[in-house]
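User: I'm writing a tutorial on reading structure tokens. Could you give me a worked example: one chain, its sequence, then its tokens, then a sentence or two explaining what the tokens reveal?
Assistant: Sure. Here is the example chain.
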Amino acid sequence: MKLTRDFATGKYFFEPRELTGAWPKVKKRVLAHMFSCLVIATDHEDFRSAYADLIMTNSSPPIADLCDAIRSWLRDADLRPRERVRLKAKLRERRKYMLICRH
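And here are its predicted structure tokens:
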């Protein structure tokens, strides 16, 4: 993150940095307690490979889903029934998932 000053107010804030690359490459950084929150702002096909890891890994940050991407992925994913139930239970149990708005 980059420390930035707002010249209008004189206050400082941390400017988030966008992660780029394939999930296997950025996975360690995301799951290493570096982030306070993970924001999903678009339901893009490229991100769907990461959702199960984010949900099931205890060290992953809380998820703010702005576009209902995870629920959409759970509905459409080719998962075994037992796996689907486990993922849904983990989301409820850890209270780490928040749907912020819905289209």
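What the tokens reveal: The chain has four helices and five strands. The helical segments are 23-30, 51-56, 69-76, 81-94.
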